[in-house]
Design a protein that fits this description.
heterodimer; A: 133 residues; 4 helices; B: 142 residues; alpha+beta; 4 strands; 19% strand; elongated
């Protein structure tokens, strides 16, 4: 019943999409902030890590009684790795302005998409709560 | 944890750092002809040293990677030799009639200022995007 009303799997998937988008946004902002820092290497949120968080499995809450909620593993901050294949400048820095701005905009798009879907979901729940008024 | 707020702090720290780069470039250009600096010597070109700086020291202590900002680690003087210009009438000319001029290359400062301005704009754009995301997230509660 709980699952039907809140559509937990969809909601938590959307929640993770929000978290991953924020992580990507944050990494792109960090890269952009260090546009001129000598020896700074461009960082990236690794895709594998993000995928693993979307796939089932991982730690769940312990259940002592039937009916307890197990919760969803939701740790989507992601591992960071150095981006590869970028040309390095003479000061050892390899941040590309256009690449980071592109990533920021893409992450913003992902975030907006998930937010729109989530608020549509919430609207349905509210609709049900208000007896379809 | 990387949050939108720490991302914004990272971008804000970059604004501060880029602004001091512009300040230093401007003071270098202003003093391109100053033959008497603070210590009586001709002005020496100054340069900003940037270093990356984790936004949240808690994350750093826990060995986690969060948003990374930037800070001005130091402002150093250029040790390059002064340019010598022949001008016997100048009050600071030496016995041979040469004046030591500051080691400031004005076109180089202009380029540095341009790159700092671009970086500043890029980080402003980033802050705008993050701000949009935050207000988007607020809309979830409506």
């Amino acid at each position: 019943m709980n699952d039907i009303i809140t559509d937990r799997s969809i909601m938590s998937a959307l929640g993770r999409q929000l978290t991953v988008a924020v992580a990507k946004q944050s990494v792109a902002a960090s890269n952009l902030a260090n546009l001129d820092t000598p020896n700074y290497r461009t960082r990236d949120v690794s895709f594998d890590e993000a995928l693993n968080q979307v796939l089932p499995g991982g730690e769940k809450l312990a259940v002592t009684q039937r009916g307890h909620l197990t919760g969803q593993p939701n740790v989507a901050s992601g591992e960071l790795e150095d981006a590869e294949g970028l040309p390095t400048r003479r000061d050892g820095n390899n941040v590309q302005l256009d690449r980071e701005l592109l990533h920021m905009n893409r992450a913003a798009g992902d975030f907006t998409a998930a937010q729109t879907a989530l608020s549509a979901k919430f609207r349905l729940v509210r609709y049900a709560i208000n007896e379809s008024k | 944890m990387s949050t939108l707020h720490s991302a914004m702090s990272a971008s804000a720290s970059a604004l501060t750092a880029e602004r001091s780069r512009i300040e230093v470039a401007v003071s270098n250009m202003a003093n391109a002809e100053s033959t008497r600096g603070v210590n009586g010597q001709p002005y020496r070109r100054r340069d900003v040293v940037l270093a990356s700086n984790p936004v949240e020291s808690f994350d750093d202590a826990m060995g986690r990677t969060g948003a990374v900002g930037v800070k001005v680690a130091d402002i150093v003087e250029d040790k390059a030799p002064f340019a010598r210009r022949y001008d016997p009438a100048h009050p600071d000319a030496d016995a041979e009639g040469f004046v030591s001029m500051p080691n400031v290359d004005v076109p180089e400062q202009m380029v540095d200022m341009l790159s700092a301005t671009r970086a500043y704009q890029a980080n402003l754009t980033a802050i705008g995007l993050i701000k949009d995301l935050i207000s988007r997230a607020m809309e979830l509660g409506k």
